[in-house]
Amino acid sequence: MSKLTVTVPDIGGAENVEIIEINVAVGDSVNADQDLLVLETDKATMEIPCPQAGKILSLLVKVGDKVSEGSAILELESADSALSADADQNRAGAAPAAKEPAPSADIKAAEPEPVAGEERLIDLVVPDLGGASEVTVIELCAQPGDSLNADDSLIVLESDKASMDIPSPQAGTLKELLINVGDKVKEGQVYGRLLTQARVDSAAPAQQALAQQTAVQAASDKALEQASEPTVTAVSAAAVSETTNRMEKPDIHNVYAGPSSRRLARQLGVDLTRVNGTGDRGRITKDDIRDYVKTLVKQAENGVATVTSGSGIPAVPAVDFAQFGEIELQPMSKIKKVTAANMSRNWLNVPHVTQFDEADITDLDAFRASMKAEAEKQGVKLTPLPFLIKAAASALRLEPSFNVSLHHDGEHMVQKHYVHIGIACDTPNGLMVPVLRDADKKGIYQIAREASELIEKARNGKLKPNEMQGGCFTISSLGAMGGTGFTPIVNAPEVAIMGVSKAQIKPQWNGKEFVPRNMLPLAVSYDHRAINGADCGRFFTTLVALLSDVRRLVL
Fold it and tell me: Which residues have a Cβ under 8 Å from the Cβ of 433 and sit 6 or more positions away?
């Protein structure tokens, strides 16, 4: 056999690229195109394949080294060269016995080629440790008698700087382990023996594994595609993700996972920093990765996207709250799950701006009190809400820049010629937003009656889907619950929402003196892609004027 030095191939002109993972060890038998190591640039990762089949003689690099095109990475005992030499010898024919050189006594005879299906016992050797002289065995991942697949973790070693999984070089049965937890081992030391069989046909299992990986990959792609269903936005989610990743990229080097798990994660496009490890000492296993993908698929099928992260933002880390005291896990209702997903989507996709103002509702409140008896005869309870709905509907008519939505193509604006007002309701099942239709065409009594009916339906869980669709503008009122103001989240595809806080008596200057007036704090959040500050200023001025003098509502 001949010795071949494997170098870094063409990597698109990149230089001083960091090695983030080495997938082989000294003594491994490798096939052509098998991954040797993984490089990472500022923009992408790339796998370096083996140019031909053979056996790893030595590794010339380690994780963390910087390489460029042409850099030597390992020495390979070429199997192709051996086959070529054997073929040449066979073509030459058998030479006379007298001319055969006598084998030297100190030269070990070549081992016979294994017969398909024949069992053989191989030594398990500690691979290249990256220059470390002695490392400690901190975990035994398999026991004698266990059936193993290629790349299954056998032991875990720990140096002063890092821990590393030692995988099985091939499938077989672990016959014995010659080490225990806490032992010190060196590079090249035999730590166990593996009973293997010469493979009859390795293509079938490889095809089966590839089919399984393809199926899981398709499921993962479907989950990610459905979980990130686009909303009305002109911003590319991919661009946001790429920008955020450049700003803060999770460090996958500190993730506790073996080579086989990392390889599976790369194949499925899974970010290991988001996977919770269930193995010993929190190690991430292949099953953990598959369970993570299954969870994404299930969330996509149920129409619920994960709310712990989005647009490339790192996930909120899992916390074991039980360590701080007694806890109880309470399942979220479907409404709360959908609300959480919608809030996260709207907050991440809509560039929010909130403007604040106060409306003098002293005269409105006096008028409402004077009409209380008449309203009761009409069978309605006259609260400030019907006046807020009527005023908002009239303001949308007078300032149509607020009565729009962004078209999904990102190139058009949808101007609405109807006025439907959403009413945010706190219900036992969670937040719901029934929609009162054609509010601009209805009187105060009719608005009060229909709004009361919708709110009652929401609290009893009897709202129909079409009674929560088509809103142009939403009102979220905290009423008498208190607070001087808050910033509501836009309910996309609407472009604006108004938050109403508790009214308070405040001194106001009338030009001659301070007089007590009932002031209502208002906050309007809007989508800055569709609405500018000047638009909101005009809308707010109109709305405050309508609330300050209800006579304007009849003009």
Answer: 422, 423, 424, 425, 468, 471, 474, 491
Give the pLDDT score at 335: 82
- Tell me whether the CATH fold assigned to 1-86 matches the one assigned to 118-198: yes
> Residue with structure tokens 């709207």?
346
Q: What is the pLDDT of residue 52?
A: 87
pLDDT of 162 reads 63
CA-to-CA dists, residue 458 to 20, 221, 299, 388, 473, angstroms: 54, 36, 26, 19, 18
Cβ burial, residue 505 (10 Å; 0-12/13-18/19+): exposed
CATH 2.40.50.100 fits 1-86, yes or no: yes
The β-bridge relationship of strands 421-423 and 473-477 is parallel
Check residue 237 and give its pLDDT: 41
pTM here is 0.49
Give CA–CA dist 156/165, Å, rounded.
5
- Beta strand 147-148 with 35-40 is unpaired
DSSP 114: P
pLDDT, position 374: 93
Amino acid at 554: V
CA–CA dist 111, 312 (Å, integer): 54
Split the chain (555 residues) into runs of 10 and give each run's mean pLDDT. 82 81 86 83 73 89 88 81 47 43 41 60 82 80 86 79 76 90 87 77 47 51 45 38 44 67 81 84 84 82 53 75 92 84 90 96 94 91 95 96 93 96 91 95 95 94 90 91 89 96 94 95 96 94 94 85
Name the helix (H) or strand (E) containing 336: helix 334-349
Per the omega criterion (within 30 degrees of 0), is the bond before 493 cis? yes
Q: CA quadruple 114, 116, 120, 122: dihedral positive or negative?
A: positive
Query: CA-CA distance, 200 to 115, in Å (whole number)?
Result: 9
* Cα–Cα distance, 195 to 119 (Å, whole number): 7
Q: What is the pLDDT of residue 117?
A: 56
pLDDT of 43 reads 55
DSSP H or E stretch at residue 14: none
User: Would residue 54 be called left, alpha or beta, if left means φ above 0 and alpha means ψ between -120 and 50 degrees?
Assistant: left
* Cα separation, 72 vs 10, whole angstroms: 13
Give residues with Cβ within 8 angstroms of 288, minimum separation 6: 261, 275, 276, 277, 278, 279
Per-position b or e across 301-337, b if 16+ CB within 10 A of its CB: eeebbbbeebbbeeeeeeeeeeeeeeeeeeeeeeeeb
CATH topology for the 351-554 domain = Chloramphenicol Acetyltransferase (3.30.559)
CATH hierarchy code of domain 118-198: 2.40.50.100
User: Out of 253, 352, 412, 528, which one is annotated catalytic?
Assistant: 528
Q: Specify which residues 148 forms β-bridges with.
A: 172
Active-site annotation holds for 407: no
Domain boundaries, the chain: 1-86, 118-198, 207-334, 351-554
d(CA 347, CA 36): 43
